[in-house]
Amino acid sequence: MPDTKTKTTDHKVIKSEEQWRRELSPMQYAVLREKATERPFSGEYEHDERAGTYVCAGCGNQLFSSDAKFDSGCGWPSFTQPAVESHIDEERDVSHGMIRTEVLCSKCSGHLGHVFPDGPGPTGLRYCINSAALKLEPK
Fold first, then answer.
1. How confident is the model at residue 78 (pLDDT cuts 50, 70, 90)?
2. Which fold has domain 7-138?
3. Domain spans of the chain?
4. Annotated active-site positions, please?
5. Is the peptide bond before 122 cis (omega within 30 degrees of 0)?
6. Non-local CB neighbours of 17 within 8 Å, separated by 6+ positions
7. Is the pTM of this model over 0.85?
8. What span, in angstroms and rounded, lies between the C-alpha atoms of 22 and 20?
């Protein structure tokens, strides 16, 4: 029988695919573990204006503050910067005939979305994040 315990190695959360499937909704699993993307304007947090902290839906890692959220009109929740820089990993993504920068949770390696250089000040960045990858902890 496979080990179904969550392991943390060097602050990384490591789970079996079976455990991820049990713990996440089908959409959360598709986004976080298979790098899927929600349909634009369909996500739970696209127009949510509540104050709080957005954490990773897979592991609870603190990712974004509502203070950094803005309406980019792109169809996904957008943020100007992470809550904690070290909680986000970035990788080059050349899928779908494009060159983009993928954003991942540094703790569980879950796919969150992408970051683009077309956001407002002060950073000029737009972290375009799938709602399914997030959970809002209201203030």
1. very high
2. 2.170.150
3. 7-138
4. 128
5. yes
6. 33
7. yes
8. 5
Q: Are 75 and 46 in contact (CB under 8 A)?
A: yes
- Report how far residue 75's alpha carbon sits from residue 59's, in angstroms, rounded to the nearest whole number: 24
Residue 55 and residue 135 in contact, taking contact as beta carbons nearer than 8 Å: yes
Predicted confidence (pLDDT) per residue in 32-65, tens digit:
999 999 999 999 999 999 999 999 999 999 999 9
Helices (H), the chain: 17-23, 26-34
110 and 104 Cβ atoms separated by less than 8 Å: yes
- Which residues, including other chains, have CB under 8 Å from residue 56's CB and lie 6 or more apart? 32, 63, 105, 107, 108, 110, 112, 133, 134, 135
* Dist. CA 64–CA 54, nearest whole Å: 5
